Structure formats: C-alpha cells, structure tokens
Amino acid sequence: MTTNEAGPPTAPVARQPIRRTDGGVLGHEYLYRSPTGEVAGVDRWPSHRQDSASASVLRMLYGTRPPAGSGLVFVNVTRAFLVGRLPLPPADRRLVLEVVESVPADGASLAGLARLRAQGYRIALDDWTATRDQRAMLPHADFVKIDCRDLDAIGDAGLRRARAGGARLVAERVEDEDLRARCVALRFDLLQGYALGRPSLVTGAA
C-alpha cells in the first residue's frame, strides 16, 4: 500500500494501548478520527464509508514504511479487505486485522480469512457476542475482543466459547479499576480501555 493509491485524504489517527494483565503493552489499536481529531462514530457508518476509514488508517500507518517499534498494530477492517477488493499492506507479523462485527461469514469472507492468516496476518474478531457469523470465523481468530458492556449478556458460556479455538481474549472498554479487576478475575488475557490508557492522536507512523 502506498500513499498515491486512490482514496480519500488521510485523516487523523489515534492509538490506544492494549495491555497484558501485568501492565505491559502488547500493542495498540489505531483508530480513525474526524478531520478535526474527534471520535467519528465509524461503526454507525454505511459499509463503503467504513471501507474508506479503514483505508485511511492503513495509509497513515503503512503509507511510506511500516510503523516503528515492535508492538502489534490492531486496525479495524471490513469485508472488502478480507475478500481482496481493497488492498492491505504486506504482512509483517505485527498487523492484526480487527474484523468488525458487521462482516458476514459468507464463503468469500471465510476463504479470505484463511488466506490472510496463512500469509502471516493476525486476525481479531471485534465486539464478540457469539453471533452465528462470529462463531463461523472463530477458527481463524488469534484474538477475540469483548466489550465490557456485553459481559453480563455473554456470561460464562460465551467466554468459554470465545476461548474454544485458542484465541486470546481482549477486554475492551475497561473504564475503571473495578472493571479491570473483574476482567482479570474472568481470566482475560489482555485489557483495553480508559483504565489502561486513553486514545491519543498520532502525527505519523507510530
């Protein structure tokens, strides 16, 4: 992926740490921001605009060279990236394709996940609630991300199902110390949220 590929101008990007339960940083999720640097609510956008947002983040991170550092790089992607309709930067064992919850587990998507993982990309399933589509994608997942607001609805059975394929569980929206302690007690592998670090704008590949 290069900066002269077709697409909208690169918008600001924020990054939020993803930490191990001992506090060490595994990597960061890189998040699309509006041109003024504000939260954009991308998850409520139609699919073609989500495509553009993901492409913008990837251009920001990989437009001229891979990001510096050694941490993992989590980026939300849509079906268009899984099926090859939109390009991805070369796999570097750091890039984690975070599949948004609206992606259907159709044949092309599942084949794309298998192909990308074989090429060296890591896969995360975002906002896991154990839907039929997510369960079909689970064998391809290295990480499963669960919003803390869904913990009660998912229950112990849902957490067991998420772990069934060997993926590492990431608790999202860990907003205070009580939630952090709860997620540690539930044996989450990784934690993300305000209690672990707020998103901060980045001005170049990070």
TrEMBL record:
Residues 1-206 form the EAL domain. Pfam families: EAL (PF00563). It comes from the Bacteria. InterPro entries: Cyclic-di-GMP_PDE-like, EAL_dom, EAL_sf. It comes from Cellulomonas wangsupingiae. This is EAL domain-containing protein. SMART domains: EAL.
